[in-house]
Specification:
Keywords: Signal. The structure is a single chain. The protein is an alpha+beta fold. The chain has 2 domains: 79 residues, SH3 type barrels (Roll); 82 residues. It contains 3 helices and 22 strands. Strands 5-4-9-8-7 form a 5-stranded antiparallel sheet, with no helix packed on it. Strands 6-3-12 form a 3-stranded antiparallel sheet, with no helix packed on it. Strands 18-15-22 form a 3-stranded antiparallel sheet, with no helix packed on it. A hairpin with a 2-residue loop joins strand 1 and strand 2.
Length: 213
């Protein structure tokens, strides 16, 4: 009886220890300077001089302007960049909020950096996989296609490619284009399939997307 109880206690402790390791590993943060590196982040800005944080809505003439001042030495994640014609580069730090790289009066206001391959590899290793059917859901993915027959592929300009995707396969979709031929889904790497081919297109649920963040 004592031997059985000792075995149960030992098993329980082992399970608790294993769970603790798993929980800790799954919540590991990848720090990059002063901020945590996140999926979907393409870089960060380091504030060199006090500079305004801009809110730029759908109509900048009506919905825009400075909301507060960012202080020298602060760091912010960047999710996209754009350079409107005639303007300096702008960095999106989340939502509709931007900082401008340069100022004609003050010179360079911010420094933009991209994460190293090592940091990106650590982020990939620290993030639990979110499976969606046969494939892993990835940041930037807008949907997937499931093929009901073999499907030919082509380039963005409509020229044919050698790859023929087999029936039953599932493929991530990152973009779609509309044209006079009815449109196509972009599977990444410049590979496209006919939008109206032998396939089924689906978008990820809100619950799946929440797990990905």
């Amino acid at each position: 009886m004592k031997k059985i109880m000792l075995t149960i206690i030992a098993f329980t402790l082992m399970a608790m220890f294993t769970f603790g390791i798993t929980s800790e590993a799954s919540s590991t943060k990848v720090m990059w300077g002063k901020t945590e590196l996140k999926k979907g982040q393409i870089g960060k800005v380091i504030i060199l001089k006090n500079t305004p944080l801009l809110h730029i809505g759908k109509d900048p003439m009506l919905d825009g302007g400075a909301v507060r001042e960012l202080k020298k030495g602060e760091e912010y994640r960047v999710y996209s960049t754009k350079t409107p014609e005639g303007y300096f580069p702008m960095y999106n730090v989340g939502g509709e909020y931007y900082v401008v790289q340069n100022s004609t009066l003050n010179g360079v206001n911010v420094k933009f950096e991209t994460p190293s391959k090592t940091k990106l590899a650590l982020l990939e290793d620290s993030s639990p996989k979110v499976m969606w059917g046969k494939t892993e859901l990835k940041v930037g993915q807008i949907g997937k296609v499931t093929l009901s027959a073999d499907v030919a592929t082509f380039n963005a300009d409509g020229t044919s490619r050698k790859e023929v995707l087999p029936a039953g396969g599932e493929y991530r979709v990152y973009t779609f284009v509309s044209d006079n031929h009815g449109g196509a889904y972009g599977l990444g790497g410049g590979l496209f399939v006919d939008m109206h081919g032998a396939l089924k297109y689906e978008t990820p649920s809100k619950s799946k997307l929440a797990l990905l963040k």
